[in-house]
Specification:
The model has no long low-confidence stretch (mean pLDDT 90). This protein is α/β, with parallel strands linked by helices and 245 residues long. It contains ten helices and ten strands.
């Protein structure tokens, strides 16, 4: 398994706080001395992590176009989670909130969904192995550290995993424009998984049929749909609101 590169202050800090043993080396922009970067560099040094200073051009080339914010880290990859790990991930979550992404292939959308999931206290994000963006440096950068805090579980058979969750008492709601009721008139408390479909195509047929209920976001304007990361944020935080009442 090859090493990974992560870019940006938030992503580097999140990995350092969660698992400093993953670090191999860090590259920083030569001459950058500011209040955001210096505390992170001092923390890296306390762990004995190698830090190399580089000029702007070689650092940009190493980032391959990513917005690195003056810092890049080469790290060991995280352990890939699959359906066999799901029960362990849910240990300690009496009323878990889960996010299922069926076919989200854009890394920016996956990163934004992970960031939403972290903010909403989601126990895990579940994706199919064959129709999902890989966990790349771009995903980690967009996620602003959430890729290191929210378990991402890749499953071979999404419908089978959904049925397993249902057997555990998790209520599964899918989002679809043709649903007969909206998220504000739906029960979203208790053990819950929210399913978001792919950009443009929505959920696959078997995924849709496996859901316990279908809900929609009310749309008042001329736009027919929302970006999947925006829609996931709306649905997750309506669930959070209901759980607090």
């Amino acid at each position: 398994m090859s090493n990974e590169f992560i870019y940006g202050i938030h992503a580097v800090k999140a990995v350092l706080e969660k698992d400093p043993a993953r670090f191999i080396e860090v590259f920083v922009l030569k001459g950058r001395q500011d209040d955001r970067l210096l505390p992170l560099l001092k923390l890296l040094q306390t762990y004995g992590i190698s830090i190399q200073q580089m000029g702007r051009k070689p650092l940009d080339e190493k980032a391959k176009g990513a917005n690195h914010q003056g810092i890049i880290a080469r790290v060991k990859p995280t352990k890939a989670l699959n359906e066999n790990d799901l029960d362990d991930v849910l240990v300690g979550h009496e009323t878990p909130l889960l996010l299922i992404l069926d076919g989200v292939t854009d890394p920016h959308n996956l990163g934004a969904c992970l960031r939403n999931a972290d903010a909403a206290g989601v126990a895990a994000v579940i994706v199919p192995k064959d129709r999902s963006a890989p966990l790349t440096a771009t995903v980690s950068k967009v996620a602003c550290g959430a890729a290191e805090t929210v378990p991402l579980v890749r499953v071979t058979n999404l419908a089978r995993t959904m049925r397993h969750l249902q057997e555990r008492g998790v209520w599964i709601v899918g989002t679809a424009g043709e649903a007969t009721h909206d998220i504000y008139h739906s029960k979203l408390n208790g053990p819950l998984a929210i399913v978001m479909g792919a950009e443009g195509d929505g959920m696959r047929r078997l995924t849709r049929e496996t859901c316990d209920d279908l809900i929609k976001i009310p749309m008042a304007g001329s736009v027919s749909s929302l970006n999947v990361s925006v829609a996931s944020g709306i649905c997750l935080f309506e669930a959070v609101r209901q759980r607090q009442n």
